[in-house]
Description:
Layout: E1 3-12, E2 15-24, E3 33-37, H1 50-61, E4 65-69, H2 85-98, E5 104-109, H3 111-123, E6 131-135, E7 155-160, H4 168-175, E8 183-185, H5 196-208
Parallel strand pairs: 3-4, 3-5, 5-6, 6-7, 7-8
Antiparallel strand pairs: 1-2, 2-4
Helix pairs in contact: 1-5, 2-3
Amino acid sequence: xxxxxxxxxxxxxxxxxxxxxxxxxxxxxxxxxxxxxxxxxxxxxxxxxxxxxxxxxxxxxxxxxxxxxxxxxxxxxxxxxxxxxxxxxxxxxxxxxxxxxxxxxxxxxxxxxxxxxxxxxxxxxxxxxxxxxxxxxxxxxxxxxxxxxxxxxxxxxxxxxxxxxxxxxxxxxxxxxxxxxxxxxxxxxxxxxxxxxxxxxxxxxxxxx
Length: 209
């Protein structure tokens, strides 16, 4: 897979947001832009996280441009952690600045998946996503938003069977009332150690479906 990566900054509500764009090196235009959110900022989460990078590479392999960004207070992004409220503002700012037109996808890992559900809820009535990817969704500590019923076909929810950070049962409790399918990786932990190629394959398969 050939890709090129560009680091850049954009304006957010709390100051400048540090971001990276991964895109295919090819003659044909990308299928759209995917905006991907990272794990919890207070526990080492950054846009360089391996699961986040794996999701980005899956999007690129499927012909999308992928934008990763650091939440406020992380790396070169200004501001302070805001328990999800400001982080939602950050994600919406990235969408508005770098994915303002054309097909869009939203994705996130762990805390980033929680923020992504909030972004989907905010944007869907005006701008439905082509694809949604939620990995290791932090449904235990945060108020994860339900996905709009019309968004279910576009959505992939992946969780590790043996996730000891966010128990599978908690995610199932969130998904069950929505009749939202969850793809379970047998033996998988929160960070999918040793199973990142499988995770990437699952995401690519969803994006190509």
